[in-house]
Amino acid sequence: MIDTAAFLADLDTLRKIGEYKTGVHRPTFSPQDMESRHWLAARMAEVGLEPTIDGIGNVFGRHTGPGPHVLAGSHIESQNYAGWLDGALGVISALALARAGLPVDVCAYCDEEWHFGAGFIGSRSLIGRLSEEEIDASVGTFTGQPLREALEQAGLAGKPRIVIDPARYKGAFEMHIEQGTQLENAGLRVGVVTGIVGIRNYVIEVEGKQDHTGGTTMAERKDALVGAMRILHAIDMEFPRVCGERSVWTAGKLVLDPNAPHIIPGHATINFSFRDIDNAVMDRMAAALERIVQEHNRRDRCPATLQLTARSEPALSDPAMLAALTSAAGELAPGAWQAMPSGAIHDSQHLARVMPVAMLFTPSIGGISHHWTEDTKREDLELGMRVLHEGVSRFLAA
Amino acid sequence: MIDTAAFLADLDTLRKIGEYKTGVHRPTFSPQDMESRHWLAARMAEVGLEPTIDGIGNVFGRHTGPGPHVLAGSHIESQNYAGWLDGALGVISALALARAGLPVDVCAYCDEEWHFGAGFIGSRSLIGRLSEEEIDASVGTFTGQPLREALEQAGLAGKPRIVIDPARYKGAFEMHIEQGTQLENAGLRVGVVTGIVGIRNYVIEVEGKQDHTGGTTMAERKDALVGAMRILHAIDMEFPRVCGERSVWTAGKLVLDPNAPHIIPGHATINFSFRDIDNAVMDRMAAALERIVQEHNRRDRCPATLQLTARSEPALSDPAMLAALTSAAGELAPGAWQAMPSGAIHDSQHLARVMPVAMLFTPSIGGISHHWTEDTKREDLELGMRVLHEGVSRFLAA
């Protein structure tokens, strides 16, 4: 049987590490993050797993008994000043599966939250898709700190990296908060995830000329923010013409140099990304973006460059795992669940390259995510935990 | 006679204080800035002036002989990592006038470069238009540090502030770099300034909702950068319909919160300003800006607020001072000078509230300003110095 009290108690304890208001601040490899990893390794040992913190920061708890095995987990670091459940829920629910006696390897995949390099360094390393060269070249998204230096400070330099053998596993499960309002708006308590969107990340650089705002006439100036704004406006006009029904696109970060009230911006850097469940739709959006930048460079006096910096593929859930979760949800949460795609990307998307995957969602109150006010009702956490346990049990027995 | 060799030597010495590449980094009240103020006070004493560094950071050198007097100077702090002549030229040329025996009070007006509060705290304090309450409320533009704390650290807390008696002066002169390309493009070496533009500064705040970029559908999201971009686009479309021939407008600073690639921006803050020599034109631009924000709030789901944070009035040069500079330029730089407005604002604009003012420009190579590559040919600096000396002499004799 699943011990939901212990599961909730573990979540509450973990919440205290790096506590910030009602959320947490545990950026990857910060002292708070490393404290949480060591705490998790100790909890894994308590439930009978063999814990290891490997050379990229993955916390891996190996089941010592016979299989067939499943892999379960998520991430334990947070976005800056963000929610207490994002990632932690998937790790602690996996720990609860192991405590309940299921043949589960538990993993906290390192840096799903993209504090370093091209993101997902933990899950990619675990499946053998992270090179030493990429680690050499990666730096902190917010800090600029080299990843090697951060690993050194975290006490992880020189430790071996774990690479799993996919043949050991029937599949990988991940429970996560929805990070949206679909469940809440429909009055539902559980989401069985049918697939995960793909994402394409771009950096758009706009080159202007830094100058005094008073001494430079409008005809002379090359204002990089004006250039950036015109590109963003073209996206705002063009993307609705090519997008799919559930496509999303976002410029989340815009950095001006020098960014001072009375200096004409000399340079603008935009981080832009879009997501969809269908690669054909994403190909249309990519082509539109390329045309927008091409046309901008024909017209504007601030030339722009477009670089695709990362790309992940849509991943559909495994039918047998989906069936097990669906039947469990139907029995334990009758009328209170739905099947749905995931608009967010997750470690499961990388694991899907080497084994079957499936995910389960709990509702996010107000849809809030990546902010310290993120939360989920305790009864929904418990219900999700019971559905996950029952689903994994049925899948293993099938 | 004017000693241009000593004038250039002083500029070269001052350039070493806070040197950054070929420019300087002397933000107001930084250790480098305070070193330059104390250095200047010592130079003032050398040329026979009575130096004081007052309670707001003004470095004031009082002529001890009989009048009629003129006031001359500019500012000595720099923008961050900016040019070596911006401000320094006006201060050191004023020092050279005093060395040449003219009855000149020399002043380095503190913080023309707007590192604190509403800017121009030095020249406004000098004419009695800076209240203790405003000092209490002012904070660092880039640092957020309270002005009171910065004054304390600079050793200026509790020192009296100098307020001048306008009756002491026939007028105030300021030499400055052009900060544009008009002189260079016309192949000229001296600009006699007919007037200084007015400027209106605004802060535009756009309120969105911070959320996960994947879990929030396009229909649900409130993206503050999209809202900000739509306002900037409307300005880009509407301002050409209401502007004057020489109007300029700029959004120099845009700050997103939290400004992370995969989080929908929850808040955007824009620093926007415009300039013109004619208040009627600026009134039209102000009305257009208000209409743009009003219409934005009728249409958009991210509401915006518009706040006028500072306003300076256009200031025309004094006819007698202009005539003296014009006749000096005609004699010393025949065919190599022009009369022109100043697109940048200067301390003289504030002094103009209490006495006649005039300014002289030297060319800026490539028009570059507020950047460490800013420069002026040495022969143009010397020529400007000779024209200023001759013009001030003629004005005093008139």
TrEMBL record, chains A, B:
Zn(2+) 2 binds at residues 86, 113, 370. Zn(2+) 1 binds at residues 75, 86, 176. Its cofactor is Mn(2+); Zn(2+). Coiled coil: none annotated. Binds 2 Zn(2+) ions per subunit. InterPro entries: Amidase_Cbmase, Bact_exopeptidase_dim_dom, Peptidase_M20, Peptidase_M20_dimer. GO terms for molecular function: hydrolase activity, acting on carbon-nitrogen (but not peptide) bonds, in linear amidines; metal ion binding. It holds the Pfam family Peptidase_M20. Residues 195-300 form the Peptidase M20 dimerisation domain. Keywords: Hydrolase, Manganese, Metal-binding, Zinc. It comes from the Bacteria. NCBIfam families: hydantase. Belongs to the peptidase M20 family. Homodimer. This is Zn-dependent hydrolase. It comes from Rhodovarius crocodyli.
